[in-house]
Structure formats: structure tokens, C-alpha cells
Specification:
elongated, Rossmann fold, alpha/beta, 4-stranded parallel beta sheet
């Protein structure tokens, strides 16, 4: 099972549901957070952006996702459920969530976004 979370209050409420489902189904629980990356094609300066700068932007985005996941994983553990893996990635959330789900062999995928992002 994969819980894709953005750390929002809505996601906080989904942690309990994910933990319960994981226990009831006897499924491993993986957590993912995807920090969106700017679309380089929308930037005129993308044509001249150095690979080092793109790499730095990606690293910062992944660090932000990892920070989100650390708190979420700790809360799941407090509920007495083991977290099988955490996946902090940067990119397009839809594509990255699917990629992580395939990578870990997740059956159920729970995706929670804040209402501000257009749930």
C-alpha cells in the first residue's frame, strides 16, 4: 500500500486510515511525498539553465519532500504500524506517484492533497 502525502492537515487525517487499512489488509505501508518541480519548458531561461542548477533545484525539492515524510512516518509509527519505506521524490506528482507505486508493487494507493491545491 502506498500513501502519497503532502503533509497537509488533510493528509494528517489520512494517516490513521492508511495505518488501519495496512493492518487490516496485512499490507506493507509505504509513504511517498512528491515535491513538484517547475516545468522547465515554461521557463524561457530553461534553455540556458545549467545542469548543476537543475540538479540543485531537484535536491532541494527532494529534501523538502523528505522533511515532510519524516514527520508523517513518525506519526504512523506512533500508531503502532511499521512503515516499510519512505520515498521522497521531485517531479510531476501524478507521474512520480505512479512510478513509486509500480516500484514498490503497491496495490491500494491513497493520494491526499490539501484543499488549497484542488483536491
Amino acid at each position: 500500500m502506498l500513501l502519497a502525502t503532502d503533509g497537509s492537515p488533510e493528509a494528517e487525517r489520512a494517516l490513521g486510515t492508511a495505518a488501519m487499512l495496512s493492518e487490516k489488509l496485512g499490507a506493507e505501508l509505504h509513504l511517498a511525498s512528491v515535491e513538484p518541480m517547475p516545468d522547465p519548458l515554461s521557463w524561457p531561461e530553461a534553455r540556458i539553465m545549467s545542469p548543476e542548477l537543475r540538479g540543485d533545484i531537484r535536491k532541494r525539492a527532494e529534501d523538502a519532500a523528505r522533511t515532510t515524510l519524516e514527520g508523517q512516518a513518525e506519526k504512523i509509527k506512533e500508531l503502532g504500524v511499521e512503515v516499510s519505506g519512505v520515498h521522497a521524490v521531485a517531479g510531476r506528482p501524478d507521474a512520480e506517484i505512479v512510478r513509486v507505486a509500480e516500484e514498490v508493487g503497491a496495490g491500494p494507493v491513497l493520494v491526499v492533497r490539501s484543499e488549497e491545491e484542488g483536491t
